[in-house]
Design goal:
Order of helices and strands of chain A: HHEHHEEHHEEHEEHEHEHEHHHHHH
Number of helices of chain B: 7
Number of strands of chain A: 10
CATH topology of chain B: Rossmann fold
Strand order of the largest sheet of chain B: 6-7-8-3-9-10
Order of helices and strands of chain B: EEEHEEHEHHHEHEHEE
Distance between the termini of chain A: 31 Å
Shape of chain A: elongated
Number of helices of chain A: 16
Low-confidence stretches of chain B: 4-13
Strand content of chain B: 25-35%
CATH class of chain B: Alpha Beta
Structural class of chain A: alpha+beta
Shape of chain B: globular
Radius of gyration of chain A: 32 Å
Number of domains of chain B: 1
Largest interface: A-B, 28 and 28 residues
Largest sheet of chain B: 6 strands, mixed
Structural class of chain B: alpha/beta
Strand content of chain A: 15-25%
Low-confidence stretches of chain A: none
Largest sheet of chain A: 6 strands, mixed, barrel
CATH architecture of chain B: 3-Layer(aba) Sandwich
Mean pLDDT of chain A: 86
Strand order of the largest sheet of chain A: 2-3-8-5-7-6
Radius of gyration of chain B: 17 Å
Distance between the termini of chain B: 18 Å
Number of strands of chain B: 10
Oligomer: heterodimer
Helix content of chain B: 25-40%
């Protein structure tokens, strides 16, 4: 065995109990870090997955971020406008089929047209503001998980009745509607429509489940009082993480407001960033506390082994070699702690995953956990680095000791 | 005793292996303490030198300066003709490892290691031999010093004299031409002292080593070739004794 490693292992073995405490400290830090990361990232991934699966990755609407310039402004330099009123009716996407064809040529994913209308659902003395989306059930299957989220009927049930409607299960619960119920839809423009509930869906996102309904495109157009209207293109991408860049390109090419799922949920995603900062701060603090244990044991060993250090130096072992001995000892503690911490972290994560939860705001009875090798690598890496840093200071001090002073004082 | 062939047997006695030129060592502090003052001396090959003097006269301090364990405040120590003042710590360490062997008053063996491992320590630090060669040499040294049967024991399983002989074996591990011993018999009974002295004596007589030993024991000092006496850090006497 290498001399440095041999001496380091011998020292660690000679201080088994103290070393075990230091290893336990590091293991606790690593274990809890892994558990926390599994919990935080698991819940984040779960939420993100729901968002990505439930909503289109990109929504192209007939709105524009900046109003189009007035013809007069293009003709005259000094045109002034007063009293401009917004259009009462949504203009819709011009030539939607042609626009879709252009996008389909380069966008890596699927596209479905839809009509979105804001309406009030009236049923049994309940008035609930709802976002009604007119869809083509066959194309919808290409851009969202709505067919998989259906309860009690399939999405093609929309073809079964005139003005059929599928509502979120929480919305149905709120208004007390069951399958077959005839509800009334009314828009702010005065359109009024009687529709039959043919199914429910459950996306797992509370906001969607209690305020969204789907009809056929034709029914949506009737509700919007605009025949042939398509005011949204919904896209699902092969790589949802590329949504932001692709949305920007679509907006540049078409001029229509194109919103990626990340932009639509920016506030939530920024909350995740803050959450992650908090998580890493807590994990860092845990591992920092653990590294104090490593510092303590290495300091103790160097103090107890001062005479041996002096002897080794007097025999001719160079300072870096002596320093390396104690750094390796710290590394051994860090490594043992990390390995024990991996096991502890896995057990803690499993235990946490087995806990039943009953929360109306969470759509599962188990905590979502992420078992990612990266968490183990990060926690283990930080443990090793912090152990080495913790061990380096006493190791450096020990290696710099003047052997004569110790030899003179030795008895 | 069958130790390795001496490295400096043919070297002329006149060419000093260790030389001190006006060496002074002052310990800094509120009241600076002078440990060694203006010492000039030259120690050649195959010399058996005793450094004596009362407590606090600077014997051990001089030995540490000659062994590059300490740096002089003024003056210079030359090892094998080479000035050491400008050597960095790594060079001094390598010089100690290859040219000088140390034996201290207290054996200073590593308690957790076996006797053989302790002897192998300087060889492993130097890294010039294979593991098998190191074991073979350690066993040979231990056998030569009458400790062949104890090589797997730990230092605390040996008597004081045996431990000191292990320390001598360790000092010889890398075949250094010079052995520096600081009160090598100071903590031993008279019988063990005699055994250790005999070992050191044989190193000089049979194996051509140079041994410089600090001692309080005037009886032993008189049996050495040369006797340097210190008082208040100065050399007050430096002369030859009759050959043992």
């Amino acid at each position: 065995m290498n001399l440095v490693l041999d001496i380091a292992v011998t020292h660690v073995r000679a201080h088994l109990r103290q070393t075990a405490f230091a290893v336990a400290g590091v293991a606790t830090g690593v274990g809890f870090s892994i558990m926390m990361a599994a919990l935080m990232v698991g819940s984040q991934d779960d939420f993100t997955r729901r968002l990505v699966n439930t909503l289109p990755n990109i929504t192209v609407s007939d709105e524009r971020r900046a109003p189009p310039p007035q013809p007069a402004a293009l003709t005259y330099d000094a045109a002034e406008f007063h009293g401009l009123t917004p259009e009462a009716r949504r203009p819709g996407i011009k030539n939607p089929l042609a626009t879709m064809a252009v996008l389909e040529a380069w966008v890596p994913g699927k596209i479905a047209p839809s009509v979105k209308v804001q309406a009030i659902i009236r049923y049994a003395n309940h008035d609930v503001a709802t976002s009604v989306t007119g869809i083509d059930p066959h194309r919808e299957a290409l851009v969202s998980d709505l067919p998989k989220q259906m309860r009690g009927a399939s999405l093609t049930a929309l073809y079964r009745a005139t003005n059929a409607i599928v509502v979120g299960d929480r919305l149905a619960e709120k208004i007390g509607a069951r399958i077959g119920a005839n509800i009334t839809l009314q828009t702010s423009l005065g359109a009024r429509l009687s529709a039959q509930v043919v199914g429910f869906f459950h996306s797992g996102v509370r906001q969607i489940d209690e305020s969204t309904a789907y009809t056929l495109t034709k029914t949506g157009q009737i509700l919007a009082q605009q025949t042939g209207l398509i005011n949204e293109l919904r896209l699902r991408l092969a790589d949802p993480l590329a949504a932001r860049e692709i949305a920007a390109r679509i907006e540049t090419e078409t001029g229509y407001k194109s919103v990626s799922w990340q932009e639509a949920n920016e506030d939530l995603l920024s909350t995740f960033i803050i959450r992650n900062i908090i998580m890493y701060a807590v994990v860092g603090a845990i591992l920092l506390v653990a590294s104090f244990g490593t510092y303590n044991i290495i300091s103790t060993i160097t103090h107890e082994k001062a005479r041996d250090i002096a002897i080794m130096k007097s025999l001719g072992l160079p300072e870096p070699t002596v320093r390396a001995i104690f750094v390796v000892e710290a590394l051994i503690i860090g490594l043992a702690g990390a390995l024990a911490g991996f096991l502890l972290g896995y057990i803690l994560s499993r235990a946490l995953g087995a806990v039943r939860i009953n929360n109306p705001f969470v759509d599962t009875d188990r905590l979502p956990l992420a078992y990612a090798p990266l968490h183990y690598a990060i926690a283990g890496g930080v443990a090793l680095v912090s152990s080495v840093i913790a061990g380096y200071q006493p190791a450096r001090k020990a290696a710099r000791q003047h052997p004569v002073e110790i030899i003179r004082g030795a008895t | 005793m069958s130790l390795a062939a001496p490295a400096a047997t043919a070297q002329a006695a006149a060419a000093p292996l260790i030389e001190a030129r006006a060496v002074t060592r002052i310990l800094p502090g509120v009241v600076p303490t002078t440990l060694v003052r203006d010492v000039d001396l030259a120690i050649g090959a195959r010399e058996f030198v005793a450094i004596t003097g009362p407590s606090g006269s600077g014997k051990s301090s001089l030995l540490y300066l000659l062994g590059l364990l300490d740096l002089p405040t003024a003056g210079e120590v030359l090892i094998n003709g080479r000035a050491t003042a400008r050597m960095d710590e790594e060079e001094r360490a390598l010089t100690r490892l290859t040219f000088l062997g140390f034996v201290f008053q207290f054996h200073f063996l590593l308690a957790e290691f076996t006797v053989r491992d302790n002897v192998m320590l300087p060889m492993r630090a130097l890294g010039r031999l294979s593991g098998a060669q190191m074991r073979e040499r350690a066993d040979m040294l231990l056998s030569a010093l009458g400790l062949g049967d104890h090589r797997h024991k730990r230092p605390d399983q040996l008597s004081g004299g045996q431990r000191q002989r292990v320390a001598v074996a360790r000092a010889l591990a890398n075949e250094p031409p010079v052995i520096l011993a600081d009160e090598p018999t100071g903590s031993l009974d008279s019988k063990s002292s005699g055994q250790v002295f005999d070992v050191l004596h044989e190193l000089v007589e049979a194996h051509g080593k140079t041994v410089v030993a600090v001692t309080h024991d005037m009886g032993l000092a008189e049996r050495m070739h040369r006797h340097i006496e210190l008082l208040d850090g100065r050399v007050v006497a430096d002369g030859a004794h009759a050959r043992v």
